[in-house]
Write a structure and sequence with these properties.
Elements lengths: L1 H6 L3 E4 L17 H8 L11 H19 L7 H11 L10 H18 L13 H11 L2 H22 L3 H68 L4 H29 L28 E7 L7 H21 L5 E8 L3 E8 L15 H11 L3 E6 L5 E8 L6
Parallel strand pairs: 2-3
Antiparallel strand pairs: 1-2, 3-4, 4-6, 5-6
Helix pairs in contact: 2-7, 3-4, 5-6, 5-7, 6-8, 7-8, 8-9, 10-11
Length: 408
């Protein structure tokens, strides 16, 4: 992998969430808000079918039949009932495949009035189609919502043309669909905000546990060091005291291991243990595909990156990862994050920048975390790490590390 990167003068990795098939990268020509809408991914994991869905089907199916019997004013009653019953199962997949269900239901009901004697949507019970609009904006991607909206608008417009409804009824139809879409968006972002709050609470708790872990290790190691010194001092004259010191050291070590394992289990809760090797420079490209929401990430690797010591490669990856995470967390209205790594004969330069609002303040983090931890990581290898706002746009982090590191 390293040799492949070294042979290529530049590597560009572009992520555009669900628009990978569009085969174009964001070049600034698209409006940032439109880009953000199109790049919005589907809500994952979406709920599959639950008992409430089957209960809804069980209630609606006989209601459709009853309405078909007691609505003599409906043209082609049997056909309308059959079409609406055939579309009823779309409710079962409205969360997992919202666009497909909207296209199926609204596509059929748009064409039906032109090829059949009656409009199936004249059934009052056909109003369940509004649930498909809600589900599209609640669970679908931004691209799904845009495409599905065309089918919804086409259906309402076609109903106005075929049935010759007045302007008020047409506006009411659009208002109902808009209300369903708005409700879906509101609940979607409320759930996302709630999830972000939970993630922040987990992060703060893990940071607290990390500090506690450090204090625990420091306490037990200090106790073991003191007992070891006492054992050495008394080993010649009091062998029994030296043996007792060894037993004390063993007990302290066991307690330290038990406490550390308990904290590590909490830190890893809901996440599998990472048993793989430390990531290196070649893994920075994976940052582009690591996130499903937020700004697009571009990665550019240049120069001879082969033969870097593992400590330097791992540090570069961690610095890039932390910088991208900070940009995603704090950059306001950012649509793009650029990560570049350039190597020469003596050093390696990492630069991470975003196109968020200029002059925005970013938190520096508590000692040992965030930007302070990044600077300490660079200092340990004899390098530098600087971060600050750009005059024109966003925020930039620049780290320069010696190619061989300190003491390599």
């Amino acid at each position: 992998m390293i040799e492949t990167i070294a042979q290529r003068p530049a590597t560009r990795v572009v992520l555009w969430d669900d628009l990978k098939s569009h085969h174009r990268s964001y070049d600034g020509s698209m409006h940032p808000r439109l880009h953000a809408v199109l790049a919005e991914p589907r809500v994952s994991p979406a709920l599959s079918r639950v008992w409430r869905d089957w209960a809804l089907i069980a209630v609606l199916a006989p209601a459709i039949l009853v309405e078909g019997v007691f609505r003599p004013d409906l043209p082609w009653r049997v056909g309308c009932v059959v079409v609406v019953l055939a579309l009823l199962p779309t409710l079962l997949w409205r969360r997992t495949a919202p666009l497909a269900m909207v296209v199926t239901a609204f596509g059929c009901t748009t064409v039906a009035p032109f090829v059949l004697p009656g409009d199936p949507c004249q059934l009052f019970t056909a109003s369940f189609l509004v649930l498909l609009v809600y589900a599209l904006f609640r669970w679908g991607s931004g691209r799904d919502a845009v495409l599905g909206s065309f089918f919804v608008v086409a259906k309402v417009t076609a109903a106005g043309l075929v049935d010759s409804v007045d302007g008020g009824e047409l506006v009411a139809g659009f208002a109902v669909m808009f209300a369903a879409a708005t409700l879906g968006v509101a609940i979607r972002f409320r759930a996302a905000a709630r999830q972000r709050e939970l993630d922040q609470v987990k992060l703060l708790e893990r940071e607290r546990l990390a500090r506690d872990l450090h204090d625990t290790v420091a306490h037990h190691v200090s106790a073991m060091a003191i007992r070891a010194q006492a054992g050495i001092a008394t080993s010649a004259s009091q062998p029994d005291a030296a043996v007792e010191a060894l037993h004390t050291i063993e007990a302290e070590a066991s307690r330290a291991l038990a406490e550390m394992r308990a904290m590590v289990r909490v830190l890893r809760r809901n996440e599998p243990a990472d048993l793989g090797p430390n990531p290196q420079v070649a893994d920075i490209g994976r940052l582009a595909g690591q996130f499903r929401t937020g700004p697009t990430v571009d990665v550019d690797l240049r120069g001879d990156l082969g033969g870097l010591p593992p400590t330097v490669g791992s540090a570069l990856y961690r610095l890039a990862q932390e910088s991208v995470t900070n940009a995603r967390r704090h950059a306001r209205h950012a649509t793009r994050i650029e990560v570049s790594v350039a190597a020469d004969d003596t050093s390696v330069c990492l630069r991470v920048s975003d196109d968020g609002e200029a002059g925005g303040a970013r938190p520096t983090g508590s000692p040992g975390f965030g930007l302070v931890g990044m600077k300490e990581r660079a200092d340990l290898l004899g390098g530098t790490c600087e971060a600050g706002p750009d005059p024109d746009r966003g925020w930039t982090v620049t780290a320069v590390l010696p190619r061989e590191g300190v003491g390599a």
